[in-house]
Design brief:
This protein has 210 residues and is mainly alpha-helical. It contains ten helices and no strands.
Length: 210
């Protein structure tokens, strides 16, 4: 149906790929542990939006253009690396505060969390490689419409979103007491910063053809 083949295999493969820790999972886990449930949820929503953007780009062939352009691929890779390193340094420079001084995650900061999650996903060339390599395996070679790609991308986003939201809530609940104390929260922020910088530097090893 809709030019989709081996749908059950797609569902099983998708689940196994999603539960395997990757950049997005580590990002959401780090946000949830250091900044709480809301940070994890908004980061998840941002990343899922990024996944859908990748789905549309791949469906309409724009991702293929990116893969064929060494310059464009390198630019995207360095932008993604720089942004993650920037977020990491920002977390490392966070000062220790008392509970009374800790800012509430208001509408503006929630929007920032969402946008940061989306940007980290959109500027990750590994996601482009994944979508071009994985999803086409479950689309009939005779299909000439982007519809099956979009449908599979949406299903992948839905399953990934539910999994990441579960991780965000579970991780934030486990570390809720730690974040109420200034010193543990300060340490968690530093760990998150190191994780972000490590993820950013790891992007440098990504190649257009893997």
């Amino acid at each position: 149906m809709f030019g989709i083949i081996d749908f059950k295999v797609f569902l099983v493969s998708t689940f196994l790929l999603i539960v395997t820790p990757g950049t997005d999972t580590l990002y959401i886990l780090s946000r949830s542990i250091s900044q709480g449930k809301k940070a994890g949820i908004y980061s998840t929503l941002g990343i899922i939006t990024g996944v859908f953007i990748h789905t549309l780009l791949a469906a309409f062939g724009l991702s293929l253009i990116l893969m064929k352009s060494a310059l464009l691929f390198t630019i995207i890779k360095f932008v993604g690396m720089a942004y993650l390193v920037y977020l990491g340094i920002k977390m490392l420079l966070t000062k220790k505060t008392t509970i009374a001084e800790q800012p509430v995650l208001d509408h503006l900061s929630s929007k920032k969390m969402y946008l940061q999650g989306m940007i980290t996903n959109v500027t990750n060339p590994k996601v482009v490689l994944f979508f071009l390599a994985f999803i086409p395996q479950f689309i009939n070679s005779g299909s000439s419409t982007p519809l099956p790609f979009i449908i599979l991308g949406l299903i992948y986003s839905l399953i990934g979103g539910l999994w990441c939201l579960t991780i965000a809530m579970f991780a934030s609940k486990l570390t809720n007491k730690l974040r109420k104390s200034a010193k543990p929260e300060y340490i968690l922020n530093k760990i998150t910063g190191v994780v972000f910088i490590t993820m950013g530097l790891k992007l440098l090893t990504t190649k257009a053809h893997q």
